[in-house]
Amino acid sequence: MLDVSRVQKELVEIKRDEKLSGVSIEISEGDLTRMRGTIGGPHGTPYEGGVFIVDIQLPSAYPFEPPKMQFVTKVWHPNISSQNGAICLDILKDQWSPALTLKTALLSLQALLSTPEPDDPQDAVVAQQYLRDYATFMGTARYWTESFAKRGALGIKEKLVKLVEMGFSEDTARVALENCGGDENAALEKLCGG
Amino acid sequence: MNVTENVTEPGGEQDRPRDDEIQAFHNRIRAADADKLELVGDKEPLSVLEEEYKAGSPVFLAKLLILKQSYGAIRRARGDGNCFFRSFMFSYLEHLLVIQDEAEVARMEKAIEICKKTLIDLGQAEFTFEDYLAIFVEQLHGVIQGKETSTSLETLVERCRDQYVSNCVVMFFRFVTSGEIRRRSEFFEPFIQGMSNMSVVQFCRSCVEPMGEESDHVHIIALSDALGVPVRVVYLDQSGDMNDKPVTVNKHDFIPEGMNTAVDPDVILLYRPGHYDILYRRGNSGNVKHTSLEESNVEHF
Q: Where is the UBC core domain (chain A) (predicted)?
């Protein structure tokens, strides 16, 4: 049986300072076992400015068992699957404790965005890129944030169309946009300069 | 393979299993173990261990003989990483039930209040531990007889075998242990540094607070100090050589700060590498379950 009163207390706690903490939770009507968490991308990282949605499922033995968390928003990060959003984080496995809460778990995910651990990867391809070609990693991560984690993320497609209309090939325009983290003007400068 | 050219086909077969898959696997292993033994077993004569080590090391057998001079029975705890806490819980409550020490119940309630304050001062949200605290206090009150809420020894055994009750109390003890270690971090730091490269806070997060993390000296000192309960650990291990000096059985008494060091602990645990069980002095009252006819020499326990 899910410890309903504990979950309700947690929701009150997270609501209280969601503006300060940068993490929040919404519940689906009448079902305390399924929620959506949101995490603000940390400053000074390629995820800055993005809002990342996390699917949260509570097992019936919660809080003795960890919540199941998975990114819904696509993220380019060594410890998060670029395909399905699965997360590699010890506190969501054997290091979970009832001393932790949904809020501390989401804050840990936010911390994970700031400090990737490529030696213990979830996504081997992203981790390799992080270790061997950091600049490209940063570009791709920023581009994914721009494309998937920002409101009106469709903008990236329009930017691409615009650049193509200006006469650049779609491939070079996309590469330029990726390298500039989706910044259209910077990409144009790069295309003209190069 | 040049991975940088492969960014459009990320992940693929190289993806690790998902966290919940790993967790489920972990749980299945634990569950398979769990079927073998109750969280706390029946009281058994110490001779059951002789049977266990019959084909084993002569050092163990020699030590068992010495052990039998002082101790008569054992009660096993399930080996799921929580055995120290489960053994402590049962041993402490059973002793209180037998001797009906109301003053100790009152003292313990005060100690719990201080532990609660410590945790709140450390920034632990009260809702994360208040239910576990309440369940321990409920068990504590139950052992004093003559009230509606009183529990018999039989009921105590039942409660301590109930997964939910037992896990809640284990978790409360883990909170108390973590709180005490962090409150006195300067004292505990050298011990922790000697065992691992972790900071005090990291150690508590990784080795104290998660269920199933095994206990070491640091945990025992912290829990014993915080709750003010002396604990004796008797070590049944390979140390000592038969051909050298006579074999001795090592024991260590964990006496809470400020308590007379000559005190004789009532919580007595038997430690075998990686595991704790409950040990009973000879002549201790309580029922020993006869497991076979050969062990009918239980009268002199």
A: 2-150
Show which of residues 104-143 on chain A sit within 8 Å of chain B, judged by CB atoms.
121-126, 128-129, 132-133, 136, 140
DSSP letter, residue B80: S
CATH of the domain at B120: 1.20.1300.20
pTM (predicted TM-score): 0.82
Quick check: A177 and A159 in contact, CB under 8 A? yes
Domain count, chain B: 1
Does a structural domain hold residue B12?
no
Query: Which helix H or strand E contains A25, and what residues bound it?
Result: strand A23-28
The Cα–Cα gap between A118 and A121 comes to 5
For the segment(s) A154-191, the CATH number from 3.30.160, 1.10.8, 1.10.260, 3.30.420 is 1.10.8
HSE-up of B16 (CA within 13 Å, CB side)?
A: 22
Per CATH, domain A4-149 is 3.10.110.10: yes
Q: List A80's β-bridge partners, or say none.
A: A77, A87
Reduce the DSSP state of residue B166 to 3 states and report it. helix
- Tell me the residue type at A109: L
Q: How far apart, in whole angstroms, are the C-alpha atoms of residue B131 and residue B105?
A: 19
Option in A3, A95, A133 nearest B4 (CB): A133
* Catalytic option among B83, B115, B168, B207: B83
Local confidence pLDDT in tens for the 301 residues of chain B: 343 333 334 444 445 666 666 666 666 666 665 567 899 999 999 999 988 888 878 888 889 999 999 999 999 999 999 999 999 999 999 999 999 999 999 999 999 999 999 999 999 999 999 999 999 999 999 999 888 888 899 999 999 999 999 999 999 999 999 999 999 999 999 999 988 889 999 999 999 999 999 999 999 999 999 999 999 999 998 877 656 667 889 999 999 988 998 899 999 999 998 899 999 999 754 444 443 333 333 333 3
- The DSSP letter of residue A90 is G
Distance CA B275, CA A69 (A): 33
Instruction: Please answer yes or no on whether B7 and A136 come within 8 Å at the CB atom.
Output: yes
Residue B234 host element (H or E): strand B231-235
